[in-house]
Specification:
4 helices, 52% helix, 88 residues, alpha+beta
Length: 88
């Protein structure tokens, strides 16, 4: 899970890759849905700090059922670039 910190508008936000967000979301959904109000606030703060998502977006993600895991995209055509380009 790679996290980058980016300054935006004077604020420091962390950004995770999509897969990392999904992994963290899968870990927190059950905990969030069973937690009392005070703990939900703490879990929500942690998720927002780790992912850089907006609070409302994080609430929506944590209250909805987790979407199924999607298979990686398969490339139907072979690559056109040669080995020299890939090594550069």
């Amino acid at each position: 899970m790679r996290v980058r910190f980016v300054a935006k508008g004077g604020r420091v936000r962390s950004r995770m890759r999509f897969q990392g967000k999904r992994e963290l979301l899968a870990q927190l959904v059950a905990r969030y849905q069973e937690a009392p109000y005070q703990q939900k606030r703490i879990i929500l703060d942690e998720f927002v700090a780790a992912t850089g998502s907006a609070r409302k977006d994080a609430i929506r993600l944590l209250t909805r059922p987790t979407p199924p895991v999607v298979a990686p995209i398969s490339r139907p055509r072979p690559r056109r670039s040669g080995a020299a380009v890939r090594e550069a």
